[in-house]
Predict the structure of Dihydroorotase.
Amino acid sequence: MTEITIRRPDDWHLHLRDGAMLEGVIGDTSRHFGRAIIMPNLVPPVVTTADARAYRDRIVKAIPAGDRFEPLMTLYLTEHTSADDVEEGKKSGLITAVKLYPAGATTNSHGGVRDMDKAMPVLERMAKIGLPLCVHGEVTTPEVDIFDREAVFIETVLDPLRKRLPELKVTMEHVTTQDGVDYIRAAEKNLAGSITTHHLIINRNAILVGGIKPHYYCLPVAKREHHRVALRKAATSGDARFFLGTDSAPHIDPLKECGCGCAGIYTSINTMSCLAHVFEEDGALDRLEAFASLNGPAWYGLSPNAETITLIKRDEPVAFPKKIETGAGPVTVFDPMFPLHWDVA
Ligand SMILES: NC(=O)N[C@@H](CC(=O)O)C(=O)O
Ligand SMILES: [Zn+2]
Ligand SMILES: [Zn+2]
C-alpha cells in the first residue's frame, strides 16, 4: 500500500507551553491534528477554570490562519483544587480532564499531589460527574529505581485508587511498560492508556549507547526492548483502550544539552510519518486510524473528526528539519533513526 486515508487524528497528550514557544510549535500540531488534550504544567500551572480559559484564549490566538484546531483543556490537580471549580469547568464545556502529577515526578510537577488523601474530595466529585483523570503514573520515592517507577505506581497508587473509586475514569498517560499494558488490558472498565510516538520506536539503549543522548530522554524514561514490543502490540492491536498521546514536549536545546538536561521529546512535526512507518512495519496500517483517530475520541465521549488526512509513501525519504527555530530558541526534532517515507498529503 502506498496511500492511506484516515480520519483526521487527534493528540490526547500534548505540551504546547506558552508565549514564544507556543507560537513556535502550535503549527506543527494544527497542521495534522484536529484536537489535542493540552497539558497544564506551565509555570505557574493551569490550576483553575479561569486559568484554563485564559490559556485556551492564548492558544486559540496562536493557531496559524487557515488551520482548524481545537485545544481540549485540562486542570493541574493540586492538594487545594476546588471540587466546585472543577465541576464548573466541566459544565461550561471548557475542561476535558484533570491531570494528576505526583509531586516531583516530571517537568513542572512540584505543585502536584504529595498526599492522595488530600485530593480525594476532587476525585470523588470527578467520579460523580464523569470527568476523566489523566495520570502521570510514576512514583517519586527515591528508593524506587527510575525504570521501575511506573510498575510501582500501578501497584501502590493507581490500583488502590481505582479500588477506592471504581467509577472514576482514568487515563494512564504515556504508558511505557508491559506492566502498564497488562494492567489496562485486565481492567473491566474505566481505564485506558495513551502511548507516545517515541516509546513505540526507542528503547533505553537510544539514550545511553555510544554516548549520552539528551534528545532521547523523556519521562517516563524509555524502558527495555521487551516493553517497547509490548507497547507496539498494544498500539497496533486495534484494542480501543489504547490511543495516541504524543507527549510532544518541547524544551529549547540549551536546556536539554547540559549538565542536568530536561525531560521531553519533540515529535509533533513528524509523528504521523513515524506512526505510518511503525504500523506498516507491523503489518497493521489498517489499524492506524483506530489508534490515532478513533479510540481516543470514543474514550473521551467525543465524535471522531469529520475530515480525513491522506498519508502517501514516497520513494524518497521525507525531509524533516533537525531542529525547529522558535522565538524561545531552537528545539531539536525527534530522530527515529530510520528514514521516513510516509508523508501527510
Ligand atoms: N514527558 C516528558 O518528558 N516531559 C513533559 C512532562 C511529562 O509529560 O511528564 C514536559 O512537560 O516536558
Ligand atoms: Zn508525564
Ligand atoms: Zn507529557
About this structure: The radius of gyration is 19 Å. The CA atoms of residues 145 and 309 lie 42 Å apart. The longest helix spans residues 149-164.
